[in-house]
Amino acid sequence: MSARTGRRGLGFTLLELILSITIIGVAVTGVLSVVFVASRHSADPMAQQQAQLIAEAYLDEILIKRFYDPDTNNVCPVATETRANFDNVCDYHNLSQTPPQDQYGNNTVSGYSVSVTVTPTGASLHTAGNIVDNSSVIRVIQVTVTVTGPNNTSVTLNGYRTNYECNTTGDAECKPAT
After folding, report:
1. pLDDT, position 178
2. What is the pLDDT, as a whole number, of residue 174?
3. Are 88 and 71 contacting, i.e. CB atoms less than 8 angstroms apart?
4. Is residue 36 one of the residues assigned to a domain?
5. Which of 1, 96, 166, 172 is deepest in the core (most CB within 10 A)?
């Protein structure tokens, strides 16, 4: 083996160098495009999480309220109070707030809006002159809370409130305990 042949095997040709630079450039471009997409959408999970937490807070607040109005003994009378004085589940029907607020009227998180729908099973709410009372077959009320926020974020949660004071022997027994 001559000295000339040995030296030639140790280096790179110009063609090999250009080819390796091209391959590395394509790989770096692919990695950077993935990082760019991930960083651009990194706020989406946070907005989704905040909307979920707002919806859960509203649903928790609503579902701990009474099934019937303690003042009138009706299941779903028309709400006449402010949110701070809501005392039954149906008082929250058609509640809409932008931005969301706590039950005392303090704003919580800007950029979001909340809407609440309350539907008793088998009846319509707040029809003129048609107040649903505890003698009807309503034993379950569905509560739907929808929160919308930035980046087209939308979360809808459903919960159910049942009348635990109903006797299982019949609808006529479905009155609150006195």
Report:
1. 34
2. 53
3. no
4. no
5. 166
Which tokens is 91 given? 């008082």
Domain range for 155:
44-173
CA 60 distance to own-chain centroid: 12
What residues have CB less than 8 Å from 105, skipping those under 6 apart? 82, 83, 84
In a domain, 64, yes or no: yes
- The amino acid that residue 32 corresponds to is L
Provide the domain count of the chain.
Answer: 1
pTM as predicted: 0.64
Rounded Cα–Cα distance for residues 17 and 22 (Å): 9
What pLDDT sits at residue 52?
95
Report DSSP state, residue 78. Answer: P
Residue 85, both tokens? 């004085």
Q: Where does 30-170 show beta strands of DSSP type E?
A: 96-97, 113-120, 140-149, 153-162
136 assigned to some structural domain: yes
Q: CA angle 27-30-32, nearest 5°?
A: 110
The rounded mean pLDDT for the chain is 78
Task: Give the whole-angstrom CA distance, residue 68 versus residue 61.
Answer: 15
Read off the pLDDT of each residue in 122-127 and give the average, rounded to a whole number.
44
